[in-house]
Amino acid sequence: MPENNNNFQYVSSVDEVSSGHSKAFSITGERGKIEIALFNLGQFYAISNICVHKGGPLSKGALEGDIVTCPWHGWKYFIKNGKSPHKGGDSISSYPCGFLEDGHV
User: For the Rieske domain, which residue ranges apply (predicted)?
Assistant: First the structure.
């Protein structure tokens, strides 16, 4: 896998996460270890893998359109920006995704 470049960390090959699915990855950021969920909707999106409600794994949640539902208690988040679809709902972190010519995200 390529080295970290320009504050991006390469977490997966494009083929590792099929369209309509997600996978969890751990990366090391400035504040330590970060658990992310990488989603493929024909375009890749990355959000925190940890639901703010009870810590459920969002990579295991049901995906409907661009909204993921936490498998533990049903909290919902937009995978494009980590925001809640409910007014006043809690948000989670989202992360930009980039691509390399060799097929890494």
Answer: 9-105
